[in-house]
Structure formats: C-alpha cells, structure tokens
Amino acid sequence: MSTRIENDPLGELPVPTTALYGVQTVRAAQNFPISGLQPLPAFVVAVVQIKRAAACAHKASGRLDARLANAIIAAADEILAGQHREHFVVDPYQAGAGTSHNMNANEVLANRANELLGTARGTYAPVHPNDHVNMAQSTNDVIPTAIRLGALDMLRPFDQAVSALVASLAGKGVEFDDVLKSGRTHLQDAMPIRLGQEFTAYARTLERDLARVHQAAEYLRDLGIGGSAVGTGVNVEPNYPDAVVASLSKSMSLELRAGADRIQLMQSLGDAAAFSATLRVFALDLSKIVSDLRLMVSGPRTGLDEIRLPAVQPGSSIMPGKINPSIPEMVNQVCFQVVGNDTCVSMAAEHGQLELNVMMPVIAHNIFQSMEILTNSVRVLDERCVRGIEANRAMCAYWLERSAALATALAPQIGYARAAELSKQSVKEEVLIRELVHREQVLPPEEIDRVLDLRRLTEIGVPGGASGA
After folding, report:
1. Can you tell me the distance from the alpha carbon of 357 to that of 371, in angstroms, rounded to the nearest whole number?
2. How far apart are CA 131 and CA 129, in angstroms?
3. Which residue in the list 316, 370, 377, 403 is annotated as catalytic?
4. Which H/E stretch holds residue 236?
5. Where do the domains of the chain lie, and which CATH numbers do they carry?
6. End-to-end CA distance of the chain
7. Range 323-327, long-range pairs (CB < 8 A, 24+ positions)
8. Which of 180, 213, 221 has the alpha carbon at shortest distance from 198?
9. N or C, where is the chain less crowded by C-beta within 10 Å?
10. Buried b (16+ CB within 10 A) or exposed e, 7-34
C-alpha cells in the first residue's frame, strides 16, 4: 500500500495515500483496535452536520473565507449523500470525549475540501482540519451535540416503525374482538378475556411507551454547541451558537434550541441517559409482548396453540415440519441488547468529572445502536409477524371451557368457599365447571347460563347481575 507521510504534535506517521483521513485518525486506529466496529452512520452524519453548520455560520459572519467555507460545505454534502463513509474508521471504544472521531471527521472534510479546491490529500492547505473545519469548536461541545442530533434524527424512523406496529396490533384487537379465551395469571387459569382485548392492550402499551420516548426527546433539543472547551464559549463569536442551531434546524428539519446553559449541557449527560432509559422501558414492554406471542403460539399439539404466526422459515435442522416463532425470538434478543446498552449508558453518564463527561463515545454508540436495532426489529415484527397472525378459535374455546377459574363467576352467588370447592372438584374429576354446576344443581339451569355467559365475563359487572351491573 502506498503511503504519504503526515505530521502531528507527536511526530510523523505514514498514512495510506488513498485515505481521506489523516495522521490523527491513523494514531487512533493504532491505539484502539478494540471491537472491529465502525462508527454507526448516525454518529458520522450528526458530526458532519455540525461541521457543515459551523462552516455556514462562519461564512455568514465573515470569520471564514467564503471559498474555504463553500469547499467544506460541499465536502460535507458529499458525505451526507452517502459518499466517503469508508474513511470514518475510528473504533467506538476510543479515547474519552470522542476526540478521535472528531478529528477523523475534521481530517476527512479538510482533505476532501482541499481536493475540491485543487490540492492533494494530506497537504491541509488551504483548508486545515483544526483551524478551519474545527473553527470555534471543541470535541467537548461537538460530541454531546452529535448525540442529541443523532437521537432526534433516528427518532423519526423509530416513530414510523412503532406507529405502524401499534396500528397493526390495534387492528388485530378489532379482528379478534369476538374470540373468547382463557385469561392466565401466574401462568395458571384465570378469568375469560377476549383475544382482541389482549392485542388492544399491547397496542396501547407501546403507544404509551412511544409517548414517553418523545417526552424524553424534548430535552435533547437543547444544544450546547458553542460551549467550546469547558462550556464557557472561549474562541466562539457570540452569534455563533444561534447561527449553528438555525442552520442545523434547517438542514436536518428538526426543532432545535440553543441551550440556555452550555456549561450544564456539557457537564451532564442526564438528558441522553433519560432518553436511553425510555428506550429500555420500551424494550421491556416489547419483549414481554413477543414472549406472550411465543406462549400463545406454543404447540401445536402440546402447548396453548391459541394463535398461529406466519411461517417464515423451517424451525429445525433435524425435526421435519417444525416451525418456530422466529421473529418474536429475534425481537427478544434485540430487547435484551437494548437493556444492556442502557446499563452501559447509565454507568457512562454517571462517570463524568467536573466540566466534562469523557465517556461520550460509548454513550453515542449504545444509544444509536439501540435505536437502530429497535427500529429494524419493530419493522420486521410488524411486517413479517403481527400482520399475519391468525386466531385459532377452536383452541381458544377449548381451553376456556376447561378453565377452573370459571368458578370465580359463581362466588357472588354461592360464596367464595363453595366456589373454591367446585374449582378443586372440577380439576380432580376432570369435568367442566359448567357440567359440574349442572350436575350438582348448584344453581337453576337458566341461572347457570346467565352466570356463565362467557362474553359478559370479559366486561365489567357482576356475573348473573343485570346488564352493566
């Protein structure tokens, strides 16, 4: 591989001739061969958007020559269009604060801007990574701003995916509203419920979780850009923060605000941690829902078999004809990862000192990964699983009639103790509650049918009482 020689304050290093990055990126790659992972696209995009907005602001103020600013902006636009992404190479596990990733972006933008101006990579003239691309910036205000921007940008596809899943679950709630089944608590027989009620509740749970995510995202709209090294704004023109926020708002189509206290926004990663926590809560609820689907589809002969999921792949390399709940299993695993990511974010957010939290790279990586895998898994769950779910009405009815919990409906008429005796007797003799009540003449026949009206048992009221009682 042909190389060029570049210098930084630590000395010389060879850099691949074809690389848009430079010597500081090479040092980072040598220092941090940790995970083999590349920076997530959201992180690259957010930082480049900030560099572009800074160039626009400095061009408008006259601090940066328009020719240089335009070249930086053009280079940024190429990256935002998907070009040159292979030149962002710093491992997510890197030196604190994200200086390595920030310099990676500065070098790529400087080298590409210089190419557009007719000079070679590695010359850093007329555009310099620090003097021009990083003008009035510090890693310390760029990276926390990038975390906020990346999360807000990824919130849009996340919102679309979750909203579509909520709509599908709600649709199944309507479709299955007439399907009566046994409820279960502690994995034991419980009172009747409609399959549609279960799916409607799933939809409402995720709807509430999504609202919680949006509430936490509101705090991310306050940007600390312009805080520079320690939040005080050294080397920053007074009009710069507002100008950058306005440029970012326009280029990213986001509602953003210049933070009222840039020192506070640099010191604390609490807003990011709170946002991550709402993703964790969403993942916990989502994991519970898909675990329910796995229980209801269990069987088909030795399990509940109350619903049928679309068959997406053979389920076994040895057992012919076996079909597994593959999509829900995948979603469970994604949710476990999100919970782990949030634990990492929580620990990192706590581990700031004085004016800066240096653990920002791992916070950015984990939040962005959580959003990416949640968005993708929710979309797959909706499109390849939930929309195709069918109710096994016969099995739902079969289990419901055999539920020992139906004796609960008799308690207002005959008392708890007598109802408990009948429940135990039903299990012991393997006879249905309805048949046992008839046989034992516990209630008049017409009263039995009224008390054990299974549809009415899925609504509020006293069994056997007047409608709506």
Report:
1. 22
2. 6
3. 316
4. none
5. 3-135 (1.10.275.10), 141-394 (1.20.200.10), 402-458 (1.10.40.30)
6. 83
7. 325/293, 325/294, 325/297, 327/290, 327/380, 327/381, 327/384, 327/385
8. 180
9. N
10. eeeeeebebeeebbbbbbbbbbbeebee
**Helix or strand holding residue 125 (H, E):** none
What are the angstrom distances between the C-alpha of 352 and each of 57, 299, 457?
A: 30, 50, 55
DSSP-derived secondary structure letter, 356: B
Confidence check: pLDDT of 234 > 70 = yes
Rounded to the nearest 5°, which phi and psi values hold at 255? -85, 110
Residue type present at position 52: R
Is the N-terminal amide bond of 412 cis, ω within 30° of 0?
A: no
- Helices 270-296 and 326-350: crossing angle in degrees, nearest 10, is 160
Q: What is the mean predicted confidence (pLDDT) over 181-187?
A: 97
Whole-angstrom distance, CA of residue 152 vs CA of residue 295: 35
Residue 316 annotated among the catalytic residues of the structure: yes
pLDDT, residue 1, reads 82
* Closest residue by Cα to residue 247 from 151, 149, 155, 101: 149
What is the model's pLDDT at position 469?
A: 35
Q: Phi/psi at 308 (nearest 5 deg)?
A: -120, 130
**Helix, strand, coil abundance in the chain, percent, nearest 5:** 60, 5, 30
- Residues 244, 50 contacting (CB under 8 angstroms): yes
Q: Structure pTM? A: 0.95
Please enumerate in sequence order all residues whose Cβ is within 8 A of that of 438, keeping only pairs 6 or more positions apart, or say none. 445, 448
DSSP helix/strand/coil, 241? helix
Confidence of residue 468 (pLDDT cuts 50, 70, 90): very low
CA–CA separation, 394 and 387 (whole Å): 21
Determine whether 92 is exposed, middle or buried from the number of CB atoms within 10 Å of its CB (0-12, 13-18, 19+): buried
Name residues whose C-beta falls within 8 Å of residue 246's C-beta, 6 or more positions apart in sequence: none
Largest CA distance in the chain: 98
How confident is the model over 70-79, as pLDDT tens digits? 999 999 999 9
The pair of structure tokens assigned to 254 is: 């986001």
pLDDT at 465: 77
Residue recorded with tokens 């995720």? 206
CA distances from 83 to 48, 74, 123, 145, 439 (A): 12, 12, 21, 23, 78
Residue 464: pLDDT band (50, 70, 90) is: confident
Instruction: Tell me the pLDDT of the chain averaged across its residues.
Output: 96
| CA dihedral of residues 397, 399, 400, 401 (deg, nearest 10) | 90
Alpha carbon separation from 70 to 44, 157, 173 (Å, rounded): 20, 31, 54
As a whole number, mean pLDDT of residues 4-19 equals 96
Average pLDDT over residues 299-312: 96
